Structures are given as C-alpha cells and as structure tokens.
What we know:
By secondary structure, the protein is of the alpha+beta class.
Amino acid sequence: xxxxVLKPLSPGYLDDMMGWVNNPEITGKFAxxxxxxxxxxxxxxxxxxxxxxxxxxxxxxxxEGKYLGNISLHEIDTQAGKARMSILIAAKxxxxxxxxKSAIRRxxxxxxxxxxxxxVWLIVFEENTKARGLYRQCGFQEEGILQDEYFVExxxxxxxxxxxxxxxxxx
Length: 171
Ligand SMILES: CC(C)(COP(=O)(O)OP(=O)(O)OC[C@H]1O[C@@H](n2cnc3c(N)ncnc32)[C@H](O)[C@@H]1OP(=O)(O)O)[C@@H](O)C(=O)NCCC(=O)NCCS
C-alpha cells in the first residue's frame, strides 16, 4: 500500500493547487462552485493559511515527491481542543490507492499526539459515500445529518457531520 507523505503548505505548491482550484469536480465536493480563482488570489490564500493560528495545512505527496492533494485542519479551537479536517486528492487516477487513508492516519497522529487535540470533526455531502466510508475506516463516527445545510447549484444539500475523539487523552 503506497503511503502519502505530509509536507507543510507553502507557496511552492501554487502551480499544483491551481490545477484544481477551478475544477468543479473537486470544488463541488466542498460546496464551492465559484471557479474564477486567479493565481494572485490563490497565493494570497496560501499565505493567509500559512500565517493563520486556526489552520494547519499540509500537502500530500507520494514517497517520490509527486504532489497528490491537500489535507488540513481548520477552525482550530484550542479551548475546546477540536479542529475540522478537510482532504482532497486532485487527480482522479490517484484516488482509490489508499493515499487518502494513510494521509488521514498521519494527520490524526499530528492532531492528537503533537497538537494534543481532543476531537477532529468534518462535514461531508451525505451522498459522498466514498469519503464517508473512508472516514469510518479511519475511526470517524457519524454525529448526525445537517439538513439542507448548503444551497448550491440550485438545490439544498444535506451534510453528514462526523468526528473522532482522542480516547487516549487524559482528562
Ligand atoms: C475522498 C478521497 C479523499 C479519498 O481518498 P482516496 O485515496 O481515494 O481513498 P483511499 O484509497 O485511501 O480509500 C478508499 C476507501 O474508501 C472507501 N470507499 C471507497 N468507495 C466506497 C463506497 N462506494 N462506499 C463506501 N466506502 C467506499 C473504502 O473504505 C476504501 O477503502 P478500501 O481501500 O479498504 O476499499 C478522494 O477520493 C478525493 O479526494 N475525492 C474528491 C474530493 C472529496 O470528495 N473530498 C472529500 C470531501 S469531504
């Protein structure tokens, strides 16, 4: 099983990220169909994420150093000890090879062992059965369905909220 290697997000990944930020097949999974992001906007976004205390962003690479996608923690709340995870693998041909699974496992190690968080949560389109199956395999549990949470492409969408707790953390 090939492993994804996590590297801190940096401006050097601008070209890789421009490869998907305007692709509705990917952005649609995140309820963002606005596809007119310029290089300037994306570099500003990368720098903003790097400077943010409430975001911790990584890119995924193959062991040979080929860019695969992004995996991040957002809305980091140190008071409550929680953060929201997001993940995407840019190229369709790289999906289903277990990179996602290995990247999530590594991110959870960082979240729980290094950042000492208590909970990692996410929301995902209810119909995204592949992502939901993967999250379950990684130990996430369903917390509930957020009904009509997003309005995109002319209709409402339900989102599933999922989470994993750091059971090893001493209270
Ligand atoms: C979702 C995504 C990150 C998964 O990464 P991936 O590398 O393709 O996933 P993996 O190969 O590690 O794992 C696939 C797992 O998904 C699960 N899975 C796949 N298809 C499934 C299905 N139809 N139903 C249930 N589970 C499914 C399986 O558990 C599978 O594990 P297996 O290898 O034991 O069969 C990736 O496909 C992606 O980026 N998709 C587009 C963007 C996206 O949907 N992001 C998530 C938004 S919340």
